[in-house]
RNA sequence: GGGCAGGUGGCGAAAUUGGUAGACGCGCAUGGCUUAGGACCAUGUCCCGCAAGGGGUUGGGAGUUCGAGUCUCCCCCUGCCCACCA
């Protein structure tokens, strides 16, 4: 027997496999099911690292196993070949990025092939190949045609020195990676993809997927849906408007409510014009519109209001004038006669509803509809139908009198003024909103405020300028230090309380989330609280905490009634030291302060004093202060044995001195009294309500949880959850918001897919026609950016100058390239039909393989790549280009291999393992198998590379090699029971991707076989087939030496027989009182009585003189004797 | 601050899902074989004990159970991702 020479063997068989094309996968094979196993394709960085081995060689075990199980397995590979490193290398070393990339691909291909993986190279896909990116462009244009692609001014990282746009990873600590210059934010027109349109579906379609829950959860978090409300706060500001109010049918200017509106608006300094519209009882459109137009000069300071039929007059008048105004407000507009269910009205003959909503939208940038919920349903419905047509803010409310005809209609007046819209998830705390905060980017600041005379315009502008320059990173590291500036001369009205509240601009509010404005509730939000403290703003509590015992010793009993009681919590401070009285209840685990009920005719303080004396014996408590509002608690009273709903008034006392009288025995039996140091109280007490009360002593903890509303007008007493619904309805609208933002796909880079768009002087944006695809990346002289922020492509005149495909006139090509996440959003489709020149992949071939059975990849792609490609697939699905809404049936994230020192492998740590070196020394089979053995493959976990561990696997393989000496030539006899067990276990473990335990079973099998005198040929070749997925080269060599001609990798996985899995005898553990004392071997088929008797005999000495209360026999496991105590 | 995942020998890890904790491998120790060995073979490797035997043990504490690494509650610690998301 020769020694195990891995080098010779691996080379020999790799060549053999390639030559015989054993891994070339047909689209279908007779009597075989297709199985699509996908691994993330690599970026061709130039050198393979251990991570690549882990990513490709371990799933290869699975691919080989499924093949041996009779499946037609597609296990493809390619290269994600566009991207920044190639461009950086090109700039640095004056190379051609294509040549650099292609060189790397050629080198890495050899390395990957050295792993002995079963990739089908005939299906290789390379994203920078024009035959590939032609289809990237084509798919992008399909999305464009579907309305999913748009251009938008977006902030980018800009290095003022290098005059270039920087990717996020090129910004280090807010500075340019290359020249260390401070990075600025700069607005640029960029291509975006509307992934947010799919946010809900991306969340909902996760549900049925067979993915690990954590991956689903992090996708949901990334999308970040939150359900809340939008609420409008009317502004009172220095800016003066001219209000024109048009009354309705059978009405007139001289009505009490009109005078009242006038007074309200004039009080704020506005001008108010209320014309009498002619023939109010028999109105004619032309006459009324004429008078409305002549009422005044309309300009961009005019607010046009129409009530009822006046709303129609207002729309028609505005349409006719075709002048821009500030705002259009329609109060309970008259129903269009064409609307289903509209009643017939006398003026239908003299009015026409030919309204140009698009024009109105242009003329009035701000539109508001007021609807009275007391009115008949048909009008409410009509206004709901009108709102989206006008794209108007719809306010549904309860008027003082139906149809807003009361003498005073406060809701109407409130909404006549300009508003700030906020998004909140806590609309229930609206009564506690004592100020508003706008993000520095907020449009109100740009459009209105800075253009008006205001008291501190310069200060605000300066703040906004510096805030906008601050990078996200700076904002982050400075979270505890809130800054901001008040907007002087303007205030908003809290729509719930009617109070004036101040406005601030502060960068703790984000411009890109929600509406860019918040209502601040300092009593129940920690950030707002911090800001309010700093700026001396009022803090109003509107939520009384309610805690509920859902688990633990005092968990409430379902379906039992609650007994309510008013009680106190008395926190008692020591007379001289910083410690407090805590009580530990003896009958239960409860630990807290002095608590007790308030008796009839007693006030809270008196109850507190009484309870302190009764429960602690201390005689001289002095009341200090009440610690905020009531704290509610629902729990099961373990002594009184009843569900309790307690309302605690928290009180702070201090003892005057240590005067103390022994307490009653009945009290002593109930609890122990402890003096606890202030800093240990929080850990000592274990009751929810007590913890809330204690937090108020320091005053630093803000209650942000659920509870019962207080100080909230008619809403007081409601549960916060219910209040949230009701207030959102009454004062705003419910609204879903997402953290997910649209996908910016523009890159100002050379080495990417050119965006196939043309900018025509006449026609605007024109997509490149399909017949002109691909738009090929031209050669350029150098890869430095062009200087104005455009990509190096902008310097290539031949590329840029083109003719418009529509009109043939002068036009310029788009010079941005696509984000590489676009390339990788569909590569798996191309594998199914990699050479197709007519389509990105034919439907027939897709159908053979999609959706993917298993996608294995790195945890770093859990959110972005996975989300982008899921979105992309859904968009294609909606266009009928793919057959499934989801591309990946299963997804698994693999673990991570660390350096030998337990640190992440990196050059700076000096702990990088070079796989080529290890392979040269120990062989590819050893490395593959070691990586599979080191730990569970699909866990959020990491394993250090252990150089000794690798040697151990090598040792295993050498022992296998030596085993061939024991093999006879006869196929005599049945397989051993150990072999049957291994066939089952190894197979099941591979299928479950538990490669580590599969290998340990092979080791157990080897240990067993080594002990044998000889092995039959049949046993030997069976063993080799089990080994084949792990060590494909060695298995093939030994298989061939055993006289086989065909490759082992096209063989069938061996079969096991159930009857050989069962041993003749089993060992039972013998326990006494649950402690293992001994063991006994009994025939496998022995009945309970036999087992029990055998066990009893073994431990007879121990059982002497004891009485057995109970015996538990767990078949094939153990016998437990429970003794009488 | 939020979300997720974890915590088992000297180390990487197993544990039929509530049933003899530590399979398998590494390391270490002793012995054998050897000119040598980072090779190979055998035995051992939680603690006390020569042994028979006894005791302990899955981050800490409590609970449920005949029986808990596994279930429940409280606390502590570590890693990853996100982070002023209203």
UniProtKB/TrEMBL annotation:
Its EC number is 6.1.1.4. A motif ('HIGH' region) lies at residues 42-52. The keyword Iron-sulfur does not apply. One of its GO terms (biological process) is leucyl-tRNA aminoacylation. GO terms for molecular function: aminoacyl-tRNA deacylase activity; ATP binding; leucine-tRNA ligase activity. It catalyses: tRNA(Leu) + L-leucine + ATP = L-leucyl-tRNA(Leu) + AMP + diphosphate. ATP binds at residue 907. GO terms for cellular component: cytosol. It holds the Pfam family tRNA-synt_1. A motif ('KMSKS' region) lies at residues 904-908. Keywords: Aminoacyl-tRNA synthetase, ATP-binding, Cytoplasm, Ligase, Nucleotide-binding, Protein biosynthesis. It comes from the Bacteria. The keyword Ribonucleoprotein does not apply. Residues 561-698 form the Nudix hydrolase domain. It is an enzyme of class 6 (ligase). PANTHER family: LEUCINE--TRNA LIGASE, MITOCHONDRIAL, LEUCYL-TRNA SYNTHETASE. Belongs to the class-I aminoacyl-tRNA synthetase family. This is Leucine--tRNA ligase. It comes from Candidatus Kaiserbacteria bacterium RIFCSPHIGHO2_02_FULL_55_25.
